[in-house]
Each structure stands twice: as structure tokens, then as C-alpha cells.
Amino acid sequence: MWDPLCALGALTAAWLLLWAVWGAGRAIYVYLLPWVRRDARWFRSHGAWAVVTGATDGIGKAYAHEFAKKGLNIVLISRNLNKLQQEAKEIERLHGTETRIIQADFTGGLEIYGAIEEGLKGLEIGILVNNVGMCFNRTLGKLLDLPNPAKNLSDIMNCNMMSVVQMTRIVLPQMVSRHRGIIINLSSLAESRPNPFFTAYSATKAFVKSFSLAVAAEYFPEGITVQTVSPAAVSTHIINNPKTGLLVKNVQDWIEPAVHTIGLSSHTAGCLNHGIQVPTLGPAWAEGCGGQFLLFAH
């Protein structure tokens, strides 16, 4: 005889089993099946140009090179003109694709976006990578322990949040008019919960996740792919280039599987290693997203 508690226990066990099977199956599909991955022609079919913010270092630089390998022309946007020029020459030399550069400091306000919009005019933009980001406290610290907190808080909000919104606003209309386009928004595992002593950074990444997933739902019927990317630790200058290992990925090792998830997952950690580090968010893990901040930024 089954009493109500036994029945509830059996239903719960069945649900957890289905959840685990779905999560494992989805992870295998997204990360481990080469034949489901999109090829270079699929990426080029969305438009001739890829635009990457924060494109001269780390993850942004890696995305720029990966899309250039697939035959897309690249627009590099960053604040350091010398690095932009060097990176543009390197991409043209290695991959034979055309490049353009736009110098912009994303800690600025609305006034910087007119020049960006002008620089992108006339280009058939198939891919936008909203990568640029900053984290002003690389060690534990309270919000008001920062030097010049008013400016630092304004800078991080402009760089991490306004850049995503405004770059999307600039590029999205032409994608909608062509009924195709890819927008990739870089978030972080920091998005998943409030993180004392990393307050502003994790809050900005929570905004990126919320904005990105909402835009994805709004414009999916228009043929637009919007992907939220929430890595754990990738060894870049923003976290002082820690030694790579089981938990910390090298940029080059991380970027290839991350690009392979485009078109397969709307919310991903980029690689299987990061996706299974903290499998606590239920179905979100199946999309490659962890559920806990490990005190690392992307």
C-alpha cells in the first residue's frame, strides 16, 4: 500500500532522475557531438562582418580570431589604439580577412556611441560579441572601500551594462531587417547570486544575463540568435592570469568549444569543464551554465 508520502517520494525520485538524464543528454549534445556543430558557412550566412568589443585582449581577442578563421571580416572595438592597430594587422596576416578598428572607451556614457554607430554604418553585421567588461576589485573588498567609488561605480556600470544595451540597440535593427544575426553577450558565473565583496561586478553580470535572455526570447521569432555566455575562470588579465588547471581554462582551450555551442545553446558556460563545475541550477546546467560564483571573473 502506497501512502501519500511514499507516492510523493517516488514522484520526486522520478523527477530527479529525468532531470539528471536530460541534463546529461543536453550536455552531450551541446559539447560532445561534433556533427551537430555549425560550420563556417552557417556563420557567414548571417552577414559578412563580426563586431567584437574589448577585442584586443583575452576572450574578446579569441572570439575575433575564431570568427576570422571562419571567413568573417572583423570590426575590433577597444580603447587602446596601438593594440587595435596591431591586432587588426595580425588578423589580416593570419586569416586574410578584412578588418576595421573603432577606438572607444566603454567607461564613457551615451556620448561615445555616435562615433561607433557611424563607424559601423554600411556594414552587413552578422555577429556581435558584447565582450568588453571590467572588475575594479580583484581582491575581496566592500563597496565603499574603493578609491573614488563614485567614478569606479559609474565606470563599471557603463562598461559592463550600458555597452551591452547600446551595442545591441545599434546592431539589432539591421539583423531584424535581414531576419538573421547572432548576438553573443559575455556574462559570468557571478551572475547567479549576490556576491558580497564583489557586489558591483556580480550585479552587472546579473543584469547582462537578464537582459540577454529577455532579448533572446523577444527576437527569436525574427530569426535572431542571442547567446548568453557565463564562463567560470578563464586565465586573462582581468583575474591576473592565474595558472591554468582543472578549474581554470586557458583562453585558447576555452574559445573553440565556446564557439561550437553557438546555435546549440542559448545559455552556456562555453565548455563542458565549466558547465559541470557547479551543477546546482537544475535545467540551466543542461545549457552549460553553472550555479555559483567561484570568485572569478570571465
Which structural class should the secondary elements be placed in?
Answer: alpha/beta
- SSE order: HHEHEHEHEHEHEHEHH
Number of helices: 10
Question: Mean of residue pLDDT?
Answer: 87
3D shape:
globular
Q: In the CATH hierarchy, what is the superfamily?
A: NAD(P)-binding Rossmann-like Domain
Given this structure, which CATH class is correct? Alpha Beta
CATH architecture: 3-Layer(aba) Sandwich
Strand line-up of the largest beta sheet: 3-2-1-4-5-6-7
Give the end-to-end Cα distance, rounded to a whole number of Å. 53 Å
The radius of gyration over CA amounts to 20 Å
Quick one: how many beta strands?
A: 7
Walkthrough of the structure:
This protein has ten helices and seven strands. With 298 residues, it is of the alpha/beta class. The chain has one domain (48-134, 142-286): Rossmann fold (3-Layer(aba) Sandwich). The protein has a seven-stranded parallel sheet with strand order 3-2-1-4-5-6-7, sandwiched between helices. Helix 3 links the parallel strand 1 (49-53) and strand 2.
